[in-house]
Design goal:
The protein has 3 domains: about 190 residues, Copper Amine Oxidase, Chain A, domain 1, CATH 3.30.457.10; about 110 residues, Sandwich (Immunoglobulin-like), CATH 2.60.40; about 200 residues, Zn-dependent exopeptidases (Aminopeptidase). The longest helix is centred in the last third of the chain and has 29 residues. It is built from 14 helices and 29 strands. A hairpin with a 2-residue loop joins strand 10 and strand 11. The radius of gyration is 38 Å and the shape is elongated. Helices cover about 30% and strands about 30% of the residues. The structure holds zinc ion (ZN).
């Protein structure tokens, strides 16, 4: 049940008109139940000092639950009542100054009119409209109790287990704490009048999740709902930057949806349940950090979401700077130690029962690559004493592919270099290849996603304002998103430049090895195919111990060159 206080005279007048216009409908009112059996419900009235009385209230046991006769209920509470032209008028006779309550069949509103003209009239929306039957107005027992609670500001309750209603007519009034103070938009009232329809009683909604999406020019707070669509209204931020979204007939898991957000326009979202089935979310905005332009509410019907758009004054130049920083920070965590290439994982392919490719003269891939990797590791250790070298294997043993990835990740590797030798039935094929390990995403899909996510497009001039912005953001974002892929590619190019031989026949160079990815590397990763064991000439080179060291040295030079560029880029980007 929802309570509205009308502070606006126009709105109140409109509602009174609406109440009046519904009178003709009473004649056509039909009960919402097919079977009904006359009964009574005991009402215990406590008047304080252990005094009181119990009285029977006329009721109907129906196929849609227990309904009580409002007039009988009112008399039991020692209220006067009369019906006039289908309008039930009830009055507090004892209370001073007291008030009256008006309600009609098939009308979801009840009006409380204080005798003291200085006091505000109140209108409550009932959970269901009273049903007219044999000249009596009936409400479901719980709704009836709620009606008297709201009107009299006294506790009136029904206990299912005992089947008894109890009213406490003494003590302090609940006052304004009953129900939620709000207002109906005039447009809604007008629509209700024109349609001569009641505002439908909604079955309610449950808010399942709250999310904040930060955009370049603001943020979107998304409330994911399940169940029926309910009315919602937004109260613009107050001086403290707190806005409220109020949903009628809604509920949620308050603990689960109390959320703090850091580093953005939205600081926190806090659900507040109030009596009367309303659910309110307090949205705290960072007024210090952002200049808030507008706050809008939008119902996303197809996705059953309630969206609050907060648009802030956007300094495009500043945003670009910030975003660049953020993108890089998200990859590097802005921690020097984290981005520094301080751990390199070396992976010699195959091993143990898996010899890998076998050359024309019986050279085994697993032996060649182990030598290269060990030479490479020694070189790194010698040249870069601050860099830790991790081997997936240092001897002739078999390590499953997924285990190699785990070793790399577990050791906090910053680069992963896997070394292999190739083989082909066409034994004239020779040359080296470098593959990128890592997932590859469709660039188009990424572009679309990036564009969709970059700015709130609700500003009329957003196209002009953010001209060129999306493209730049896209490039940075996609780079950051597939940062490892990009770094892997850089590394692959550098290594390829060193180990590639002019007489290479395959002409393949750097390639992405989607098929190779049996695990997700969480670092830039490459796979070096040092040459073809199936080619007589290359096998001779690959099995030569000195040549192996030369290959290792060339790979090292590639890494060295990559490292220089990488660190220079990072330092520049971080402004250090
Ligand atoms: Zn291999």
């Amino acid at each position: 049940m929802i309570l509205f206080y009308y502070r606006s005279c126009a709105a109140l007048a409109a509602l009174l008109i609406m109440l009046g216009s519904l009178i003709p409908m009473i004649a056509h009112a039909s009960p919402s139940f097919t079977r009904a059996e006359d009964t009574t419900v005991p009402l215990r009235v406590s008047t304080g000092n252990e005094e009181g009385y119990t009285i029977k209230v006329i009721a109907l046991r129906t196929d849609s639950g227990l309904f009580v006769d409002i007039e009988s209920f009112a008399r039991a509470l020692r209220l006067s009542s009369r019906q006039e032209s289908g309008v039930l008028l009830m009055e507090e006779t004892d209370a001073s100054p007291g008030s009256s309550c008006q309600l009609r069949s098939d009308n979801n509103f009840a009006m409380f009119v204080p005798k003291d003209a200085q006091r505000m009239k109140r209108i409550v929306q009932l959970q269901s409209a009273p049903v007219l039957r044999d000249g009596r107005l009936f409400l479901p027992v719980l709704h009836a109790c709620r009606l008297f609670t709201l009107w009299l500001d006294k506790d009136v309750v029904y206990d299912y287990s005992s089947g008894i209603m109890t009213a406490w007519l003494w003590g302090t009034r609940l006052g304004d704490s009953v129900g939620y103070v709000g207002s109906l938009r005039p447009g809604e009232i007008q629509a209700a009048i024109e349609d001569r329809k009641q505002i439908p009683v909604e079955q309610g909604t449950v808010i399942k999740g709250v999310n904040v999406e930060n955009k370049a020019n603001g943020a979107v707070v998304m409330f994911a709902a399940s169940g029926k669509s309910v009315r919602a209204r937004l109260k613009k931020p107050d001086a403290n930057g707190r806005a409220y979204l109020t949903l009628q007939n809604a509920s949620c898991d308050v603990d689960a949806l109390t959320k703090l957000f850091s580093g953005g326009l939205v600081k926190s979202v806090t659900p507040i349940s109030s009596s009367g089935g309303e659910l309110q979310f307090a949205i705290d905005l960072d007024k210090e950090g952002y200049r808030i332009k507008t706050v809008d509410f939008q119902r996303d019907e197809p996705n059953n979401r309630y969206l609050v758009y907060i648009m802030s004054e956007a300094d495009v130049k500043d945003i670009r700077m910030k975003e660049k920083e953020q993108q890089i920070a998200s990859v590097l965590n802005s921690d020097v130690e984290k981005w520094r290439l301080n751990t390199i994982v070396l992976d010699a392919g195959h091993g143990g029962h898996d010899p890998g490719a076998i050359g024309v003269r019986g050279t085994r891939e697993k032996d060649v690559v182990l030598n290269i990797v060990r030479d490479l590791g020694n070189l790194i250790a010698q040249k870069w004493p601050d860099v830790k070298v991790v081997y997936t294997r240092k001897d002739d043993r078999f390590i499953p592919l997924h285990e190699r990835g785990k070793i790399a990740n577990r050791n906090g590797g910053k680069l992963f270099i896997s070394v292999h030798c190739n083989a082909n039935k066409k034994n004239h094929i020779k040359g080296s290849e470098v593959y990128i390990l890592g997932p590859h995403k469709s660039k188009d899909a990424l572009e679309v996603a990036m564009f969709e996510n970059s700015v709130i497009t609700k500003e009329s001039d957003y196209k002009e304002r953010y001209k060129g912005f999306s493209a730049e953001y896209l490039i940075m974002s996609s780079m950051a998103q597939s940062a490892f892929a990009k770094q892997s590619a850089d590394l692959a190019v550098e290594v390829q430049n060193r180990i590639g031989r002019p007489d290479s026949t395959n002409g393949r160079g750097v390639r992405q090895a989607g098929f190779m990815v049996l695990w997700t590397p969480s670092m830039p990763s490459i796979l070096v195919e040092a040459g073809y064991l199936s080619n007589v000439e290359e096998e001779r080179v690959l099995r030569d111990r000195q040549e192996q060291t030369k290959i290792a040295y060339r790979v090292f030079q590639g890494i060295e060159s990559y490292r220089k560029n990488y660190e220079r880029e990072q330092l520049a980007a971080m402004g250090k």
